[in-house]
Amino acid sequence: MTAAQHIKALTSLLGDKSVVIDAGILASHLEEWRGKFHGHTDLMLTPSSTADTAKAVSYCADNDIKIVPQGGNTGLVGGSLPGLGSYKEILISMKRMNRVLEVDAANMSITAEAGCTVAALQQAAAEKGLLFPLSLASEGSCTVGGIISTNAGGMHVLRYGTTRALTLGIEAALPSGEIYQGLNALRKDNTGYALEQLLVGAEGTLGVITKATFKLVPAEIQKHTLWLAAKDPAGAVSLLAEARKATGERVSVFEIMPHAGLEFVLEHIAGTRSPLEAPSPWYILMEVASCTTDPSLAIALESWLHTALETGQITDGAMATTKQQATDFWRLRESMSEAQKHEGGSIKHDISVPVSSIPAFIKETTLLLEQQFAGCRVTPFGHVGDGNLHFNVMQPAGANTENFLAYWEAMNILVHDQVVKFGGSISAEHGIGSLKKQEQERTKPVAEITAMQAIKNALDPKNIMNPNVLFT
Ligand SMILES: Cc1cc2nc3c(=O)[nH]c(=O)nc-3n(C[C@H](O)[C@H](O)[C@H](O)COP(=O)(O)OP(=O)(O)OC[C@H]3O[C@@H](n4cnc5c(N)ncnc54)[C@H](O)[C@@H]3O)c2cc1C
């Protein structure tokens, strides 16, 4: 329980509006999106300025009060909730700092406060004919501070990169209470350590982000959405490389799904149908986009498609001719997770390996899983364009879900060992949080963990910032 003297002092420091002790309001910040984690705290600070955020952090550091920063609370790894471990953290929510501050069309950049949603960034950019290219299903709720702290990816990483690649500058309240003034809009800055990059993916362990500046790109005004049938992941990977060349590097989405995954969608999601007549072992959802109306892109794409069909690299394909058709293709991909829920328990791994290793990774890991967990249904799908697979393993048809989910840890170990073998990452998206910290420590080289710990100790010697995540 937070001592009354601290609540009183913080109220006089920040004002009534910035100190929340109402149990009902607190409760709405303590459940994670999937309901997997339930947080606990009796105090939430909601500063409305950078100066107030720094004052709050400084007070907490002086009084050894641990803090969990929270944005939209859409992270899925137990990183945005207090009270999940042995620490009794308080929350600091950035929800009152939610404004877009500037769209600089000439510099192609956007600056916003930490609590601003991704949807608001996209909207503000679109009003100037520009695109904030990060796109993810949680974009209506997730925030500037959250996407930076988890280095969010999403659908368009293949073409535009992750949040790390889009971030130009950051302002943050450091655990010392000082304000880090790194809010620049520079594309070139060779002046030593890139401290703002250290805050990307830090999951709130090194300070509270208060503002950020991101790159924008010209809006996509020409878009082609395709649904293709491929024999195997190896074919899909080589197809991707060729499509990138043939379209002048304008492939912005390249997703693969196995036939079983599509079957589950067609069976469980109302109103869906396969775009192709004959079934295929694998499918690809591909999008090619341009910021011009130049018709040569469509011509190049059609010629590439023709060749891919002739050489047997794809066995069939459909190009959306209407917006509705494109939406229908997307719905098949976006319903994958939902459809799998209807088939019982699923053990999930959100991993990445080099794109060229995807075929061997899927083949070898599937074989190992099938040998060790008889009857399990390996159903990987995802952003092959950037090497990220949702490597989901579903329970045998009709099996007892609880018994299957008891294999969670053993299966994680098998899959993550394979990830390490292929030079990959056990967390391609979402971060480590409190969920994957043991696995991170088990799989990351000791020197890397030691260096991370040294950085954490240097910037946050009292360990007040989100102490329950990243490290065991
Ligand atoms: C439906 C759905 C789809 C998703 N799809 C994707 C996807 O495609 N790709 C992907 O990468 N992720 C995805 N995610 C997870 C993803 O991590 C987030 O949606 C997003 O990055 C989190 O933003 P948030 O504002 O909700 O952060 P929160 O969940 O509030 O916090 C996440 C982490 O960031 C820290 N943090 C938040 N704000 C600050 C701040 N101001 N300063 C310092 N630390 C801070 C928190 O302490 C926590 O550790 C998805 C989540 C959902 C629910």
Q: What does this protein look like?
A:
This protein is α+β, with helices and mostly antiparallel strands. It has 18 helices and 19 strands. The strands form five sheets. It has a five-stranded antiparallel sheet. A four-stranded mixed sheet has the order 1-2-4-3. The longest helix has 15 residues, at 296-310. The protein is globular, with a radius of gyration of 23 Å. The chain starts with a helix and ends in a 13-residue tail after the last helix. The protein binds flavin-adenine dinucleotide. Flavin-adenine dinucleotide (FAD) binds at residues 33, 68-76, 79-80, 94, 114, 136-138, 141-143, 145-147, 149-150, 152-154, 203-204, 208-209, 429-430, 466, 469.
Write out key terms for the chains shown.
four-stranded mixed beta sheet, five-stranded antiparallel beta sheet, alpha+beta, binds flavin-adenine dinucleotide, 18 helices, 472 residues
Q: What amount of the residues lies in strands?
A: 15-25%
Helix content: 25-40%
Largest sheet: 5 strands, antiparallel
Dominant shape: globular
Please list the strands of the largest sheet in the order they lie side by side: 5-6-10-8-9
Structural class: alpha+beta
Count the helices. How many? 18
**Distinct small molecules:** flavin-adenine dinucleotide
Assembly context of the chains: single chain
